[in-house]
Amino acid sequence: MDLSTLGGQFIGIIPLGDIVLYFTTFNLFMFAAVLAFTVLIAISRTESQVEAQFGTLKDREKKVGKAEFKIRRFLAIVCGLATAGAMVTGDVFDFTLFVALIGIVNIGIVAAVKEIDVLDSAFQYGIIAMIASLPLFGGAAFILASSGTLSLLEIVNIPTTTLMLFGSILLFLGVAGETGVAPFFATKAEMFRTPGSPFLLIIHLSSLMVIVRIIEILLIINKPF
Amino acid sequence: MNLMADILLNVIIAFLVGSVLFGLQRKIMARIQMRPGPPIIQHLLHTFKFFIKESAFPKTAAMPFYIAITAMLCAIWVAAVIVGPVTEGSLLLFFAIYALHKIVEHNAGSSSGSPYGKMSCVRAVFSAAAELPLFAVLIIIYLKTGTMNIGNIVTYQGQYGPLIWGIPLAAMMFFVLILSKAPYSPFAITKGKDIISGYETEHFGLLRGYLMISESIAWYMLLWIFLTVFIGGLSPIGYLIGMILISALVALINATTPILNPNHSIMVQVSLAFIGVLGSIILLTVY
User: B136 φ, ψ to 5°?
Assistant: First the structure.
């Protein structure tokens, strides 16, 4: 098996010491898409959320304040860059670090909002993300212990063992918790009720893109053929 | 053929065929419900109409995000045409494109400031959690064929027969995904009429035109992927007949079922995905 079986044409690598980034058509597309969205987020204003009021026919506008806007935009850009890194890294440990960073900044993006319901939701998501960091890094540790390397370019040539499969399951559980996808999406969906559309995009974008990438990584580690 | 001309031709075909298939769906649904229904080319006419209508932008919208998101949706599905019919690239890449589509759908709703768009946005987050497991069907195809390359999957089917017989539950999962993207479907919670037009509610004129073009291309591409990976390489006439049959079946389901409550919609999709994945793995292990 080689990497082009999954991601299409192998374009090349960027060796940065121990950290090796690799590009297939799939990785390059995801990397470019995430960067494009990050740039868009960096230059966009936020919307004013219009809500109906009880007991009157008037509407209420909810806006993002300037201080809140600045910190959320900064965190959104960090999240975008971490997601872009997770798309092209060729190292499982780097991937887990990027995913952990995505979890932390996602909590920050929502925790900056001064609304009780939203903060409750961010708190619950934060707990799940913290719990998930154990299987996330534990999974990477098992893969290292069983294969002797964390480089995907090396792992692709190593036959799959039972311990690698176990490590992959832990890794997947960790990613699911950190990104707040099913079955943890219920807490995360509540976070989207707050205004600040560009910042909410990066939360959703990072989750889905990381899930798509982890499928590639799991199929590289667990070679069925 | 020149690559650019090939891309342009395929995008135009995808848009025209997708639009007419949407019109056909509405026609069939109307006839089932004893109504005359609109002409089959109605969706196409609507799309063109929006390009000559005045564009209006809500003062509450997040600029330039609100505008860029529609162009991005178009770009994403043009990329899908390049990955699919033009280059027959990786299915995994198509999966990434679909994930991006969900993100854009989510943010087209929230960027306007409209409560209807916002509700659609929250529902899109829920539905993404259900639709992505359905997309796990791609992994089952990989486990069966040993490749993610669309061209190689077609070659595999040339040797061993259509995959729809080998992994029928996976085909069922993908069909549910197609069904959930159809207008008026029981799973179309992001565009339920209780929230007006969902994420499209506040997009007018040119922007709505872009959204409608993207929807047509998306519909064509989902049907193309289904026919290619489960039936095999077909002739253009074969593709057309297959797309018409699937669209007619979807119309029949949509005309006879109500839209589900969002929670029920997610639970049904997740349950079907669970049955599909587990059943397919058992089938792969046994045979």
Answer: -60, -10
Point out the least confidently predicted range of A38-47, A150-159, B125-134.
Answer: B125-134
Which residues of B are less than 8 Å from A195 in CB distance?
113
CA atoms within 13 A on the CB side of B221: 30
pTM comes to: 0.89
Q: Measure the CA–CA gap between B281 and B287, rounded to whole angstroms.
A: 10
Q: What is the distance in angstroms between the Cα of A221 and the nearest Cα belonging to chain B? A: 14
Enumerate the β-bridge partners of residue A59: A52
Yes or no: say if B156 and A208 are a contact pair by the CB < 8 Å rule.
no
* Residue to test with chain B: of A125, A185, A192, most B Cβ within 10 A: A192
Mean pLDDT estimate for chain B: 87
Mutation target for A interface from B59, B65, B87, B95: give the one with most A CBs within 10 A: B65
- Tell me, letter by letter, the H, E, C secondary structure of chain B: CCHHHHHHHHHHHHHHHHHHHHHHHHHHHHHHCCCCCCCCCHHHHHHHHHHHCCCCCCCCCCCCHHHHHHHHHHHHHHHHHHHHHHCCCEHHHHHHHHHHHHHHHHHHHHCCCCHHHHHHHHHHHHHHHHHHHHHCHHHHHHHHHCCCEHHHHHHHHHHHCCHHHHCHHHHHHHHHHHHHHCCCCCCCHHHCHHHCCHHHCCCCHHHHHHHHHHHHHHHHHHHHHHHHHHCCCCCHHHHHHHHHHHHHHHHHHHHHCCCCCHHHHHHHHHHHHHHHHHHHHHHHHHC
Q: How far apart are CA B257 and CA B184, in angstroms?
A: 9
Tokens 């798309």 correspond to A87
Task: Say yes or no: A71 contacts chain B, CB-CB below 8 A.
Answer: no
Q: With beta carbons under 8 A apart, name residues in chain B contacting A44.
A: 62-65, 68
Q: Which value, to the nearest 10 degrees, does the dihedral of the CA atoms of residues B19, B25, B31, B32 take?
A: -170
3-state secondary structure of A183: coil
Contact A150, A93 (CB under 8 A): yes
Is this prediction's ipTM beyond 0.90?
A: no
The verdict on a CB contact (< 8 Å) between B90 and A52 is no
Task: Answer whether A60 touches B (CB < 8 Å).
Answer: no
Rounded mean pLDDT of B74-102? Answer: 88
